[in-house]
């Protein structure tokens, strides 16, 4: 099987788990921006400002965290389920943000690339250039999405809880996910408690997520 076909097959196999696992492929219309616009120009700041306005977030770091939480959810959910290093570097992405419908992402070409952490690192730096948000918080957001994806994969019966936990623990054995959280074992289920907080509770009408370390 060619690389092109392998990636397409993997994405088709997991897209039915839920909408976060549906990662589309190909060049879209002109309402979308190239992924490189995340790294240079005003688009990222404009988007973070729009998120702050939508959620009535007074602190720029809160909106920046919510952006990266959404961004990584849409990329890491399908990658985690597929268990394949699909190329999600900015240069192989398209994205757009709609004030009403939120963030959308898609890949340009179905191809393999570096590990997800390497692909995400330039976007972490770009977000931090816009708002003073902690590195550990951003990578905690990414790991939270990986853990959430693994939980859904278990529910879809694609992995056992033990297999999913083993995959997650392997990721957290090295930077940047090292010490990001702790997996919690339940019979036939996978739980996770992160060590950082995404700050969602600091927005108007916000709350604490199920894996939040502030939940007692």
Q: What does this protein look like?
A:
- With 216 residues, the chain is an alpha+beta fold.
- The protein has one domain (3-202).
- The chain is built from 6 helices and 5 strands.
- The protein has a 3-stranded antiparallel sheet with strand order 1-2-3, with helices on one face. It has a two-stranded antiparallel sheet with strand order 4-5.
- Helix 1 packs across helix 3 (60-82), helix 3 runs antiparallel to helix 4 and helix 5 (135-155) runs antiparallel to helix 6.
- The relative contact order is 0.15.
Short structural summary:
The chain is α+β, with helices and mostly antiparallel strands and about 220 residues long.
Please give a handful of descriptors for the protein shown.
single chain; alpha+beta; globular
Strand numbers in spatial order across the main sheet = 1-2-3
Strands, total number: 5
Percent of sequence in beta strands: 5-15%
Major sheet, described briefly? Answer: 3 strands, antiparallel
Order of helices and strands: HEHHEEHHHEE
Oligomer description: single chain
How far apart are the first and last residues' alpha carbons, in Å?
Answer: 49 Å
Arithmetic mean of pLDDT: 94
Cα shape: globular
Number of continuous helical runs: 6
Which range best describes the helical content: under 10%, 10-25%, 25-40%, 40-55%, 55-70% or over 70%? Answer: 40-55%
Cα-based radius of gyration, to the nearest Å: 17 Å
Spans of at least 5 consecutive residues whose pLDDT stays below 50 are none
Q: What's the domain count?
A: 1
Organism: Lentzea albida
InterPro entries: FhuF_C
GO molecular function, one term: 2 iron, 2 sulfur cluster binding
Domain Ferric siderophore reductase C-terminal: 194-214
